[in-house]
């Protein structure tokens, strides 16, 4: 189905990395932001990335990809600015895919999209294997207008809370739905764990 847009919010300042831009950090020689975008494009053709204006460095790592870049002039006001800007230009349902979750796979995203296609009026949220709520989340098309009411840095939590009765969960392998890399310590732990698992 074409009435779905994958939104990758990437207009944040990466402030918790203490001077390093996490989305430009290389994994297997590929910047994390580009890696996430490529996975999204494998799963679905309609992908949107939000960026600060200007953000030359992040733009350079994705500008050759077949996706839509939305610049967010008020990005400093928090994640809600990215979500409002993306929702205003997106089509159909919205999958909100954090850019800093390196354990997610294209298969994970496809699984969620297939579940949403089968129940397009449901809120679809990924969980870890043990049921712990995580990301990404797919919002039905009729909730897209609610994104205009978001403010601050709490993301889409108010929409999730207001429509909890419509929530369906999709368990992804292991901790795919939970792993995010916000700090140098998180990167170090993840890198070490990945190296051990590759042995």
Quick rundown:
The protein has 199 residues and is an alpha/beta fold.
How would you explain this protein's 3D organization?
With 199 residues, the protein is of the alpha/beta class. Helices cover 32% and strands 21% of the residues. The protein has one domain: Spore Coat Polysaccharide Biosynthesis Protein SpsA, Chain A. A seven-stranded mixed sheet has the order 5-4-1-6-8-7-9, sandwiched between helices. The protein has a two-stranded antiparallel ribbon with strand order 2-3. α1 packs across α4 (106-118). The longest helix is centred in the last third of the chain and has 14 residues, at 184-197. The chain is globular. The model has no long low-confidence stretch (mean pLDDT 92).
Main attributes?
199 residues, single chain, Spore Coat Polysaccharide Biosynthesis Protein SpsA, Chain A, alpha/beta, 32% helix
Helix-strand layout with pairing:
Layout: E1 4-9, E2 26-27, E3 30-31, H1 32-43, E4 47-52, H2 56-62, E5 68-72, H3 79-89, E6 93-96, H4 106-118, E7 123-127, E8 133-139, H5 157-162, E9 167-171, H6 184-197
Parallel strand pairs: 1-4, 1-6, 4-5, 7-9
Antiparallel strand pairs: 2-3, 6-8, 7-8
Helix pairs in contact: 1-4
Contiguous uncertain segments of 5+ residues: none
Amino- and carboxy-terminal Cα gap: 39 Å
- How many helices? The count is 6
Structural class: alpha/beta
**Adjacency order of strands in the biggest sheet:** 5-4-1-6-8-7-9
């Amino acid at each position: 189905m074409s009435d779905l847009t994958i939104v990758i919010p990437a207009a944040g300042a990466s402030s918790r990395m203490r001077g390093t831009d996490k989305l430009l950090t290389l994994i297997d020689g590929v910047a994390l932001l580009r890696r996430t975008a490529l996975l999204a494009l494998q799963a679905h053709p309609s992908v949107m990335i939000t960026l600060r204006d200007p953000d030359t460095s992040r733009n350079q790592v994705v500008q050759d990809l077949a996706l839509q870049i939305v610049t967010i002039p008020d990005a400093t006001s928090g994640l809600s600015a990215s979500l409002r800007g993306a929702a205003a230009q997106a089509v159909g349902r919205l999958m909100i895919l954090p850019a800093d979750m390196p354990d997610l796979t294209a298969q994970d995203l496809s699984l969620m999209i297939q579940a949403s296609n089968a129940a397009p009026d449901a809120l679809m949220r990924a969980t870890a294997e043990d049921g712990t709520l995580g990301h990404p989340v797919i919002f039905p098309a009729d909730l897209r207008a609610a994104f205009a009411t978001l403010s601050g840095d709490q993301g889409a939590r108010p929409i999730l809370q207001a429509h909890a009765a419509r929530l369906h969960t999709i368990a992804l392998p292991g901790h795919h739905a939970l792993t995010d890399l916000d700090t140098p310590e998180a990167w170090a732990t993840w890198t070490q764990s990945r190296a051990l698992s590759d042995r």
